[in-house]
Write a sequence for this structure.
């Protein structure tokens, strides 16, 4: 289980072979911290994206959908900014996103429709194009930040740490790397909530199977985390495959998907662990469900329950709240079949076939205080399982969100 | 708008004519505060109940459903306890609930199936029948508390104030009273979450139209409040009609329903206002929806959003969070048609047809600081409207729920 990355791991993080990057500060973040990130490949990449399902979609989301529809096989790079979401900005916002796209494309010698854009930050504010233009210009100059860690840091907002992950996959033609970075802290919800992720790989794969792999990977990673149940207007996961490395044969797609899912799950856990005000990761294992979908929905109700999350924050083995959340999940659980444990290895059992079991309260409490705290709920209905990740809910969450400036 | 009741209003509160009550402390609450409440009528009453939709249902909920199915036309009273929810207690819990029913019935000279029971408090703990038996015995003795305010107070848990409401309805046969009390603080969610309410009336009405009126009233009151999105195992609203007053003619049912809904809405607002850690009521008016159902669902997403509720707590006019919540409600809103205002009389407009409007931030912030804070979202799609109530989300909520003992 990887929690937040250490400084050493961050320093060692590399994008997939063939990708370059740069970061800088252009003043979109009031703090003056880095807020621009550019990732690119000299070779045109296959690309795929999965976007927020919110009805309110930010301009960069709309533009990237368009761009992928027309150019998914020859994407050259991604330009991202933090500090302004370019959401709820109407036609001017769309024009601004196109301008951002052109600026990024110009910086790497690509045509505009070969570049994807990402924005995160405050909603309803227009992009400051003058700052953006100066900032993008500087990304290719001597003052630019050059490491993947800089890039990962530049897209963060209320994150306390950058999120990075890399995995290798063994294919017949040789090894390929999958390496990505992400941001997200508040507004994280299973259905792709406020988070941005960019994943690079040197694998050679066409846009259609790449998108299939990305969707499957997201279902087992980013769609299984929750911080506060909210879902943003800008959520986007992009994957770029440069093809500089070996090809993914059709029969190798599932191995590639597994490695991609593994990298995405690491990023997702880092996002959940770094939820606003969180003090620990919560890993929720739902087993014995009638289906994977049922396991996911039951887990989702539990992972989104403020009462469950505050109880875990207080190291309080209040299993009643977990059971009650499962009960209102909308799934047909049978309370008399439910069993519940705490701990990585089911150390303490709290419920057996729907009834409380005597347990050592101090031990149960100590297990909840671990990072990660592991909770397993078995529904006793079938073989469906799902693992979800959330975080505890602290008073600090409220402080951060009551004071975040609009 | 009635917020929390004053001491004067509480002292003046009376049940409907013909109802008696008693309260006492039997030790189920560790604090020693009153935790038993009995309400009864000498005449058999028509009765109706609406219960939690949670798959995990507490023993008293199961028992009351049974009792109403067999005896809805001759209910004599309700015995309620706080301090123990008698939920997730299996067959022993059902036996305990039946014993509680028999004790209450004995205290008022009724048969067991003429008495309804309510329990609230910690889940997974068995009722202490010895304490209950002594406590119920004392309810008819000289030491019992006698006022409706005492009864309203006895069923509270983390509530800071009892909740009471009374309304009059004018019928052809004369006036009738509708008077009820409720409890609820955490775990309040639109679909009948942890709350108990008992409403008395002297109207003469049969069980079937009484249940119809109750369901319609709840749809416009208790189902429109949210504190934390959680839903409990014990939620119950009961109404008892003694028939001591005038009859409700078929053509007067809607007038009776309106008065019942009005009383229930007052109780619901008091519950939302008294949400754990809340510092103000939030009234959310969704207008211009394609249907009332759509308005309700959009409002529900907003009312449950921790990000919206923390922003209001911080007096932060962060309209982006409101719009984003509407966007993930699952309803087909059209962002380009949405308008948003703050204030009882739409004093400050923040969005016009999907775009931010310039507004006086200090004025907007001041409107959010009011109790109630009023937010209106117009979807621009039709004539559907719904008013919902929630509360702001403070760090105190987390403190209360991290420390509530299991």
């Amino acid at each position: 289980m990887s929690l937040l990355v250490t400084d050493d791991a961050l320093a060692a993080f590399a994008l997939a072979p063939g990708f370059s990057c740069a970061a800088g500060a252009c003043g979109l973040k009031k703090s003056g911290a880095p807020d621009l990130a550019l990732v690119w490949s000299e070779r045109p990449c296959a690309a795929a994206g999965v976007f927020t399902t919110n009805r309110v979609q930010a301009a960069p989301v709309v533009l990237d959908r368009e761009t992928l529809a027309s150019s998914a096989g020859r994407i050259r790079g991604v330009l991202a900014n933090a500090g302004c979401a370019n959401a709820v900005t109407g036609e001017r916002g769309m024009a601004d996103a196109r301008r951002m796209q052109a600026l990024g494309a110009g910086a790497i010698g690509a045509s505009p429709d070969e570049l994807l854009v990402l924005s995160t930050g405050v909603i309803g504010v227009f992009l400051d194009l003058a700052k953006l233009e100066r900032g993008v210009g500087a990304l290719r100059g001597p003052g630019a930040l050059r490491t993947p860690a800089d890039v990962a840091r530049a897209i963060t907002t209320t994150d306390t740490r950058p999120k990075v992950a890399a995995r290798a996959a063994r294919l017949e033609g040789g090894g390929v790397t999958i390496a990505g970075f992400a941001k997200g802290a508040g507004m994280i919800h299973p259905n792709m909530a406020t988070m941005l992720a960019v994943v690079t790989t040197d694998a050679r794969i066409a846009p259609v199977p790449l998108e299939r792999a990305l969707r499957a990977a997201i279902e087992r990673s980013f769609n299984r985390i929750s911080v506060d149940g909210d879902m943003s207007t800008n959520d986007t996961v992009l994957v770029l495959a440069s093809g500089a490395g070996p090809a993914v044969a059709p029969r190798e797609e599932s191995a590639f998907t597994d490695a991609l899912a593994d990298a995405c799950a690491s990023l997702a856990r880092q996002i959940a662990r770094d939820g606003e005000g969180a003090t620990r990761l919560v890993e929720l294992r739902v087993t014995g469900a009638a289906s994977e979908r049922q396991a996911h929905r039951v887990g989702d109700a539990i992972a989104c329950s403020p009462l469950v999350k505050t109880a875990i924050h207080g190291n309080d083995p209040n299993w009643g709240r977990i059971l009650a959340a499962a009960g209102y999940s909308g799934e047909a659980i049978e309370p008399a079949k439910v069993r519940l444990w705490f701990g990585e290895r089911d150390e303490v059992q709290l419920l057996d076939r729907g009834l409380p079991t005597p347990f050592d309260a101090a031990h149960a409490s100590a297990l909840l205080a671990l990072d990660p705290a592991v909770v397993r709920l078995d529904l006793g209905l079938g073989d469906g399982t799902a693992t979800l990740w959330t975080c505890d809910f602290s008073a600090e969450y409220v402080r951060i969100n009551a004071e975040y400036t609009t």
Residues 281-403 of chain B form a domain with the Ubiquitin-like (UB roll) fold (CATH 3.10.20.340). DSSP finds twelve helices and 14 strands in chain B. Residues 187-193 of chain B have pLDDT under 50 and may be disordered.
